[in-house]
Amino acid sequence: MxxxxxxxxxxxxxxxxxxxxxxxxxxxxxxxxxxxxxxxxAALDRRVTGVAKATYWQWAxxxxxxxxxxxxxxVAEAAGGTLAGFIIGEVRAWEFGSPPxxxxxxxxxxxxxxxxxxxxxxxxxxxxxxxxxxxDRVRTLVDRHDHLILSFFRSQGxxxxxSLQLDLELPA
Length: 172
Known about the structure:
Strand content: 15-25%
CATH superfamily: Gcn5-related N-acetyltransferase (GNAT)
Radius of gyration: 17 Å
Order of helices and strands: EHHEEEHEH
Shape: globular
Strand order of the largest sheet: 1-2-3-4-5
Distance between the termini: 41 Å
CATH class: Alpha Beta
Number of strands: 5
CATH topology: Aminopeptidase
């Protein structure tokens, strides 16, 4: 029996994720993103989300790649230089006086390379950068219905944190 999922791997309410055996760990290199990665990053994001955001990725690379040490944009390359995934985060402390923490706000892994350790390698490398910047906590926001990314972060040891997200839909 198939499971109803959207392009991002989110399941319909009430469904449980299937148990899938991990693939062998990929042979990849994690490095700082560069301006030359723009086309590959934008293409990967478009394949995964179904939305073209070239202008956003141009801004993100300019803002995070090669910037100050508290801004981090890493890519994972497979053999031959093929982009396997990317992750972006930053150290920040502007949520109502909270102490500095590492925030993850973008993570994509090529669907063909999922379950092979690419996302874990990217997350581990980002956490090392956060530790080097002097923080001891990592945070992110995840849509509660996005079971794919929620399962990934839980597999990395992340749990519900002390903050409560509040939301307001603005009237038209």
